Amino acid sequence: MLNLELSSFAKDLAGLKVALESGADSVYIGGQTFGMDTISNKFSMEELEEGIKFAHEKNKRVYVTISLLPHNNDFVKLEEYLLKLNDIKVDGLILCEPGTLEIVRKVTPNMKVHMGIQANIYNYETARFYYDLGVKRVVIAKELALKDTIEIRKNAPLDLEIEAFVHGSMVMSYSGRRLLSNYMTSKDAGKYDEEKNYNLVEEKRPGQYCPIYEDEGGTIFYAAKDLCMIEFIPELIKSGVTILTVEGHLKSNEYTEKVIKAYRKAIDEFINNPDNWKFDKNWLEELQNIDHRDLTTGFYLEENIDYTK
Questions:
Q1: InterPro entries this protein is in (predicted)?
Q2: pLDDT of residue 216
């Protein structure tokens, strides 16, 4: 049997339980601090501990993202946070930069470490670089094609796990600074009043809005359409991806439930009968019925497919 993992974002404790009960093998969360996920609801440490116990009872896993780009004075609090996560038996940490990786290796040397999407892993040399530093999993950039993934798999260590996003919002850019809000309000970068939302529009595509969200964590640019690769599960798996991840920061728990169930069916069909796997249009229809944004295959294929409603 193929060792595949279906992973999902969970914005709160209820979302964690929904994702795991719907068929996800793991969830990733932002935690109470040090996560970029300030747009979503937070987990308290008590809720996180409850979620981990719930997951482990089902033989499933919980990962915590530490996507802060730390300043020097952040490291003391980070060490305390890492020790707490270690005590409650988090299954792994998702990091974005090497300084945090050094702290994790020093404070919690036995913790499993993943390099997340913000680490910008575009090639096998970067993947091998992090592997040599003790990283067990890399999340490859969303801009890569399937042929690029194949090259990474061929040239990376066999025991390095490769994770890729298969569904959900596509983050095009992230900044730890609130550039738009600061400019619009003429306020100092260190001051923060409330969450701000904007849209980016290209002149020749007036109907395609790219959402821009700003809060105390910074600025996040999203693509105008959401990723959907359910029709190409075999191609993804054959390219070397073993962790297929659903992005759902700004989605409801109902959305998470239905998306996970659809992908669970598609993945299980492939696991059970890889030579005769057939795409079921009902899976796509289920996804289109719950998503208010158009769906696209993004950068994976040589010719992009848009699933307009």
A1: Peptidase_U32 (IPR001539), RibuloseP-bd_barrel (IPR011060), RNA/ubiquinone_mod_enzymes (IPR051454)
A2: 58
* Residue in the structure block whose two tokens are 């738009």: 180
What is the identity of the amino acid at 119? Answer: A
Contact between 162 and 237 (Cβ < 8 Å): no
How far apart CA 247 and CA 169 sit, in angstroms, is 6
Run means of pLDDT, 10 residues per run, the chain, 309 residues: 86 94 95 47 83 98 86 82 94 93 95 93 97 96 94 97 92 60 53 61 71 66 82 97 91 94 97 95 93 84 78
Domains of the chain, each with CATH number or no CATH: 5-168+225-307 (3.20.20.70), 175-219 (no CATH)
Quote the pTM value: 0.86
Per the listing, tokens 């801009």 go with 143
- pLDDT for 304 equals 79
